[in-house]
Amino acid sequence: LNKKHLQSNAMATLVVQQRESPRGLLFSNNNQLCGRDTGSQIITVNKPKGKLKKLAFSGIQVLSPKIFNFFPKKNIFSIIEFYLEVAKTEHIQGITFDKQQWFDLGSREKIDAAEKIFYQKQYP
User: Fold this and answer.
1) How open is the CA angle 54-55-56, to the nearest 5 degrees?
2) C-alpha distances in angstroms, 52 versus 45, 73, 100, 114?
3) pLDDT score of 12
4) How far is CA 88 from CA 28, 55, 92, 100, in A?
5) What's the pLDDT band for 91 if we cut at 50, 70, 90?
6) Rounded Cα distance, 63 and 54, in Å
């Protein structure tokens, strides 16, 4: 991941995957962040070439130190809104890792379900 990020000269490399998400990000054929699909609205932040693909952000990212020059002057902000703003002028890319098994660990119930699969070794 880090090697691909460094080779691309991107400000950020976001790990994304093809899965259902109400907050999908839109990427061009060359994996450039181009916008967002909110479910009710498609927002584009730059001129994409070709058909856009909707991918879900995993929360994993590799950043160029230069991106910190773009950070807003407030303590709390949406990282997705931030990436969309930066993508208007800078290279923000997505990279997929669809062959690995992913787990949403956002609640105690989801952690329990993931542990059950892990301990039973029921990998796909």
Assistant:
1) 135
2) 12, 31, 23, 31
3) 95
4) 13, 18, 9, 31
5) very high
6) 21
Do 57 and 124 meet the contact criterion of CB atoms below 8 Å apart?
A: no
Output the CA torsion 10→58→32→43 (10° steps): -130
Closest C-alpha to 3, from 13, 30, 92, 86: 13
CB 1 within 8 A of CB 12: no
Q: What is the pTM of this model?
A: 0.77
The residue written with tokens 């950043």 in the block is 63
What DSSP state is assigned to residue 32? Answer: B
Q: Structure tokens of 32?
A: 């450039």
> CA-to-CA distance for 23 and 34, rounded, in angstroms?
14
DSSP annotation string for 89-111 = TS-EEEEE--SS-----SSHHHH
Nearest to 101 by CA among 77, 86, 120: 120
